[in-house]
């Protein structure tokens, strides 16, 4: 399905046209108790189960056993700047069941969490050390009132 309308016939030497669907799919991190052969997507509201299955099979060559969809209601929230209630858009969720022998693991984009934690701890220790040195150097200053010291 596409909302792009082109004339069927053009006189002369017409340009080649590529018809792209207006569909989109976004992979969502699965819930903790989800089976390993189920993948969770958010997709455009216009997609049907058959569109989702064909999209994954034809474009990405993924064998799909079953497709289940649900429409989740958008969140209601109060816009504090203007003072009225705003509703977020509804989202269609699709749960794709892969064959039993296939397992899906959500890709870890940020693998370097352990290294970042170590670096953060090192920088925190250095900051504490430099602060304690600063306090030791300025402990006996006469120009600072005694009630101001830590």
Automatic annotation (TrEMBL):
GO terms for biological process, alphabetical: mitochondrial translation
Q: Where in the cell is it found?
A: Mitochondrion
Signal peptide from the UniProt entry = none
Q: Which UniProt keywords apply?
A: Mitochondrion, Ribonucleoprotein, Ribosomal protein
Pfam families from the UniProt entry: Ribosomal_L23
GO annotation, cellular component aspect = mitochondrial large ribosomal subunit
Fetch the InterPro entries from UniProt. Answer: Ribosomal_uL23-like
GO MF, one term, reads: structural constituent of ribosome
Has UniProt tagged this entry with the keyword Nucleus? no
Question: Can you tell me which family this protein belongs to?
Answer: Belongs to the universal ribosomal protein uL23 family.
Q: How does it assemble?
A: Component of the mitochondrial ribosome large subunit (39S) which comprises a 16S rRNA and about 50 distinct proteins.
Protein name per UniProt: Large ribosomal subunit protein uL23m
User: Which organism does this sequence originate in?
Assistant: Parnassius apollo (Apollo butterfly)
Q: What is the lineage of its organism?
A: Eukaryota, Metazoa, Ecdysozoa, Arthropoda, Hexapoda
């Amino acid at each position: 399905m596409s909302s792009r309308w082109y004339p069927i016939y053009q006189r002369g030497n017409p340009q080649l046209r590529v018809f792209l669907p207006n569909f989109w799919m976004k992979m969502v991190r699965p819930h903790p108790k989800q089976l390993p052969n189920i993948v969770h997507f958010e997709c455009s509201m216009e997609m049907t189960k058959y569109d989702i299955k064909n999209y994954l099979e034809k474009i990405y060559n993924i064998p799909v056993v079953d497709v289940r969809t649900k429409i989740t209601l958008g969140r209601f929230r109060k816009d504090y700047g203007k003072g009225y209630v705003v509703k977020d858009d509804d989202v269609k969720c699709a749960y794709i069941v892969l064959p039993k022998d296939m397992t899906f693991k959500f890709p870890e984009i940020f693998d370097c969490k352990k290294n970042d934690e170590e670096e953060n701890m090192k920088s925190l220790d250095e900051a504490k050390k430099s602060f304690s040195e600063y306090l030791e150097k300025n402990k006996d200053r006469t120009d600072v009132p005694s009630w101001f010291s830590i």
